[in-house]
Write a structure and sequence with these properties.
Distance between the termini: 49 Å
Radius of gyration: 19 Å
Bound molecules: guanine
Strand content: 15-25%
CATH topology of the largest domain: Rossmann fold
Shape: globular
Number of domains: 2
Structural class: alpha/beta
Number of strands: 11
Strand order of the largest sheet: 1-11-8-7-5-6
Number of helices: 10
CATH superfamily of the largest domain: NAD(P)-binding Rossmann-like Domain
CATH class of the largest domain: Alpha Beta
Order of helices and strands: EHEHEHEHHHEHEHEEEEHEH
């Protein structure tokens, strides 16, 4: 049986570390501020936004939640972002995705000041990740950052390993591949048009599943002793199911994340970490 990578425990440790930093910032009169913008009332998005707001408040971060109607215009949404960009109490801005079809998502992402882009989605930040720039202020996307923390804090050494990423999204697949390259892994990104995907997955020392299909990864797609990271959050008959068939995969994996309680809690912890980082760099 494999070792279970406990995202709840690891995210708890990260939040404890952040509490210390936030306390120090507060003493200096520099309370970190996070604004989360929710457009419309998508139930999953509303739940995520509520959890982000709650965690921020618990850690002592000044949290502002802006819930706007689904029929907001592009210009009205851009105005809200502009105000947050110019608000000194706000260090981090997050616009919850997906956005309604009439909104140009790329324009919204580019409107957020790169120094307040705690989601790490702005082209300045993705560009710095792509080009491996570590000497400038750079925000990396929260789920990929959380994945790296999970792997490293569970004692697994990434250097030189073969990593296979299933999924090529801008939020998870592409950025996690770049972070793994920075850690000196060798990367294969697989997607819906990949040939012989099961064989490629089965060659991975580190397998990251981010395809959004319940139990897509079967036991024979997992190498003996592999580190398996399940990013999937699929709702099946009212229950949360990952992208990995946990029962089968855990017979072969050396270490594996559960769903829930694996990657999920890490995304929020890393958002808090990025917000503290934004405050630390704000105005210095
Ligand atoms: N929707 C799903 N994941 C994310 C995320 O990490 N950030 C934002 N803004 N929206 C999301």
């Amino acid at each position: 049986m494999s070792k279970v990578i406990d995202g709840k425990k690891i995210s708890g440790e990260i939040k404890e570390e952040l509490k210390g930093k936030i306390k120090k910032l507060k003493e200096e009169g520099r309370v970190p501020g996070l604004a989360v913008v929710l457009v419309g009332d998508n139930p999953a998005s509303a739940t995520y936004v509520k959890m982000k707001d709650k965690t921020a408040t618990e850690l002592g971060i000044h949290s502002v939640k802006k819930n706007v109607e689904a029929d907001i215009t592009q210009d009205e949404l851009l105005d809200i972002i502009d105000n947050l960009n110019n608000d000194d109490k706000i260090d981090g801005i997050l616009v919850q995705l997906p956005l309604p079809d009439h909104i140009d998502e790329h324009e919204i992402i580019e409107a957020v000041h790169p120094g307040k882009d705690v989601d790490g989605f702005h082209p300045v930040n993705t560009g710095r990740l792509f080009s491996g720039q570590q000497d400038k202020l750079r925000f990396d996307p929260c789920t990929p950052l959380g994945i790296i923390e999970l792997i490293e804090r569970s004692g697994y050494d990434i250097e030189g390993k073969d990593a296979v990423v299933l999924g090529r999204s801008n939020i998870v697949g592409k950025p996690v591949a770049h972070l793994l390259i920075e850690k000196n892994a060798t990367i294969t990104i697989c997607h819906s048009r990949t040939r012989n995907l099961p064989e490629k997955a089965a060659s991975a020392d580190i397998l990251v599943a981010a395809v959004g299909r319940p139990e897509f990864v079967t036991g024979d797609m997992v190498k003996e002793g592999a580190c398996v990271i399940d990013v999937g959050i699929n709702r099946v008959d009212g229950e949360l199911v990952g992208d990995v068939d946990y029962e089968a995969a855990s017979q072969k994996a050396g270490a594996i994340t559960p769903v829930p309680g694996g990657v999920g809690p890490m995304t929020i912890a890393m958002l808090m970490s990025n917000t503290v980082k934004a405050r630390e760099h704000h105005g210095v």
